[in-house]
Amino acid sequence: MDTLPPIDRTLPAWLIAELRSDHAGETGAVRIYDGILAVSRDPAVRAFAARHRQTESGHLDLLNEVLPKPQHSRLLPIWRVAGFLTGGLPALFGPRAVFATIDAVETFVDHHYRQQIERLDAECILPGIRAMLERCRKDEVEHRDEARAADTAPQGALLRLWCRVVGIGSEKAVVAARRI
What we know:
The chain is mainly alpha-helical. The chain has one domain: Heme Oxygenase, Chain A (Up-down Bundle). Helices cover about 80% and strands about 0% of the residues. The protein is built from six helices and no strands. It has helices at about 15-40, 45-65, 75-95, 95-125, 125-150, 155-180. α1 (about 15-40) packs antiparallel against α2.
């Protein structure tokens, strides 16, 4: 992929806000996998987390190329802690909780990136940024699908509740990161 130019004043305000939320989300995603790696001793979970952490770190690098530091969310310290807890807490309960959490997070992220891509398509603007977002989205879908395939057993009530909390938390984090 071509190197993308840094954001400038010609980008629509809505896109700068979305990219800020994407950057915050990828920051949190790296920390999710850090949390899993800090807590889990399961070799399969650790291999999964290490692989996907590398991908999320690549996404964060891409966003750092296009979003100047002054445009980053001022809430990044919160997103780092929240991400670590979102990975570390389910790792305490084992592989099923980890894979269900990743499924919930990546399902949300797929939808979030898809909305941005659709708006760029509708406005017929910025094909380079659109391509970057689509690349990231496809990686996130692969993470979700791998997590789903790793555990196909039905979720219990507590795990379903946790995944709902993760989804709602992701939605609220995007709203906050767009603004702050």
